[in-house]
Amino acid sequence: MKTKNLVLIVIVALVVILGGCGCSSYNGLVKGDQSVKESWSNVETNYQRRTDLYSSVIKTIEGSANFEKSTLKEVLEARAKATAVQVNIDDPQSLEKYQQAQAQLQGSFSRLMAVAEAYPDLKTTKSFQDFQAQIEGTENRINIARRDYNSSVNTYNLKVKTFPERIFAGLFGFTEKPYYKADPGSEKAPEIEFNIK
Fold first, then answer.
1. CB distance 133 to 48 below 8 Å
2. pTM above 0.90, yes or no
3. Which tens digit of pLDDT belongs to each residue from 156-187?
4. CA-CA to 131 of 20 to 30 Å: which in 90, 138, 139, 189?
5. d(CA 49, CA 51)
6. Would you tell me the crossing angle of helices 69-84 and 2-62 to the nearest 10 degrees?
């Protein structure tokens, strides 16, 4: 009789311990997942701020009658592509497509800004000057938001991959999330040439 009671007590204790660990692990994984989603939302918010700023300066540039329309059209097309990409933060491929679209938008906009330098009337307008000041701050915010996202992903992925949470992550369907990666080729320093004569 005592052996049966002891076995029953051990079984109940194991169930309580495993249930407590399971609940704690599940809740930790859910919190981590929500933290990653919040961090990604902050990344998107900052990209949206940049897109809104780009829209404002595009309107200013469009008002300049003799401006090169082909460069402006390229930016408008890149902006449309960048805002059309839907991201699933659980899917590395959709995150990569989003990064590529944002890089294409930034590249075409950089070309637009280079062309804008040739238009002194444009450079003196208040909205254009305001844009130049705000875009620098926005790019910094984007960088910080991407870094915070990667930090959240790291914390979450550690929970998903370490014992004992790994067991519960598998049971509850939690998987690793992709990191935000640098654009291909960005590891190389840009070549700067001075053609001073």
1. no
2. no
3. 998 888 888 888 888 888 889 888 877 666 55
4. 189
5. 5
6. 160
User: What does the angle CA 92 – CA 97 – CA 99 come to, to the nearest 5 degrees?
Assistant: 90
Taking 3-state DSSP, the helix, strand and coil percentages for the chain, each rounded to the nearest 5, stand at 75, 0, 25
Euclidean distance between CA atoms 197 and 191, whole angstroms:
19
Q: Are 39 and 151 in contact (CB under 8 A)?
A: yes
- CB burial class (10 A; 0-12, 13-18, 19+) of residue 97? middle
Any idea which residue has 């961090």 for tokens?
A: 39
Cα–Cα dist 95/180, whole Å: 7
Q: Per-residue pLDDT tens for 35-90?
A: 888 888 888 888 888 888 777 777 766 665 455 566 667 777 777 777 777 777 78
Nearest-CA neighbor of 171 among 160, 182, 155? 160
What's the alpha-carbon Rg for the chain, to the nearest Å? Answer: 25
Q: How far apart are CA 28 and CA 36, in angstroms?
A: 12
